[in-house]
Design goal:
This protein is globular. The protein has a single domain, classed as Amino acid/polyamine transporter I (Up-down Bundle), CATH 1.20.1740.10. It contains 15 helices and no strands. The model has no long low-confidence stretch (mean pLDDT about 85). The protein is an all-alpha fold and about 350 residues long.
Length: about 350
């Protein structure tokens, strides 16, 4: 295997995993709601999800390369047809707005939890930062993501392994929670988590496919991304389970876990998490505003201000509650895309 092949496999793996590893993932709340609340079967759900991320990621890259797609719209239309493709396009736009709202709520929550400052202050600082950045250009955002994702990964690993070092390494016996379940069965919850993340990742994987010319690179990169997700998500889920049931009472479980360790862990996690919310929120605001500008007569600045105002209004619902409402809804809305990919993969055999 050549050096360039290894580099491309690593590139695909990190970009694929990084797209899914947003601030909701790093908080522990998203993984808690889709996996931890199902008890030990949540770990089975994570395994199924990770395998499907690898398998269907390969299919997305292969189809995109085959049809020479340059935008996720082309893949959506090819896989689901034009009508359903248009609907999924709308769902993606709404999802971006939903993620923006969750990031604003998260900033208010972490200011209140970590600094004992007013919720509204966190909202205000994050809103001003996002609007100023999008008003004056997007330069440096890609670089920021490249820097923040590895730092976030390292922070999660340090907090996770530190916690494991001070607890007995065994599978916690946690019964499924009877309330706040995103789906009636752990397998369906896993598929919902897979579906909305898979659709969102097409925005990155489709344009990337044209530069990944070798099948080995597409296969290896997708499998690597799925494994990286399984390892990091598994670590977060296991650590959250170790601290059960206290973690279920916190909107940002990983913040609670970090605060129970060394003060440097807590401080590092707070600032890295704020940076992750900023980059995730920025991408969501810019993406949804661009779409709104394209389909309306509003200017880019008007779209940005309108969307941010609406997000601020809905952010008072709360970080954990927004995740519990928005992500399952978009999971159900994008299940058809997952079904069609699975159908096409069996059809190709």
């Amino acid at each position: 295997m050549t050096k360039s092949t290894m580099m491309n496999i690593t590139k695909v793996s990190t970009i694929y995993a990084g797209t899914i590893m947003g601030a909701g993932f790093a908080s522990g709340q998203e993984l808690t709601q889709f996996f931890v609340v199902y008890g030990n079967m949540g770990l089975a759900g994570l395994f199924v999800t990770s395998c499907l991320f690898s398998w269907l990621g390969i299919l997305i890259l292969e189809i995109s390369f085959k049809i020479k797609a340059t935008s996720y719209h082309q893949l959506l239309y090819y896989v689901c047809g034009k009508r359903i493709g248009l609907l999924l396009d709308l769902i993606i736009t709404l999802s971006l707005f939903g993620v923006l709202t969750i990031m604003l709520a998260g900033s208010g929550t972490i200011f209140k939890s970590a600094f004992n400052l007013p919720y509204v202050l966190g909202l205000s600082i994050m809103s001003v930062s996002l609007i100023l950045t999008t008003f004056y250009g997007m330069q440096g955002i890609t670089t920021a993501n490249i820097i923040i994702t590895p730092l976030l990964t390292i922070t999660i690993l340090i907090i996770g392994f530190y916690s494991l070092a001070y607890h007995e390494f065994r599978l916690p016996a946690i019964p499924p929670q009877a309330i706040d379940l995103p789906a009636p069965h752990w397998l369906l919850a896993s598929l919902l988590y897979l579906s909305y993340n898979l659709v969102m990742s097409t925005a990155v994987l489709v344009p990337l496919s044209s530069s990944i010319t070798k099948p080995l690179e597409r296969i290896g990169g997708s499998i690597g991304g799925g494994l990286l997700l399984m390892l990091l998500a598994g670590l977060i889920i296991f650590v959250v389970m170790i601290h059960y049931p206290q973690t279920l009472d916190y909107e940002i479980p990983m913040l609670y876990i970090a605060s129970s360790q060394h003060y440097l862990h807590h401080t590092s996690y707070v600032f890295i998490f704020i940076a992750a919310m900023y980059t995730t929120g920025l991408a969501s605001l810019y993406g949804s505003a661009t779409k709104l500008t394209a389909v309306s007569k509003l200017s880019m600045k008007s779209s940005l201000l309108l969307l941010l105002s609406l997000s601020l209004f809905f952010s008072y619902i709360g970080f954990a509650d927004l995740i519990a409402i928005i992500f399952p809804l978009f999971g159900y809305g994008t299940l058809w895309f997952t079904y069609r990919l699975l159908y096409l993969s069996f059809l190709a055999r």
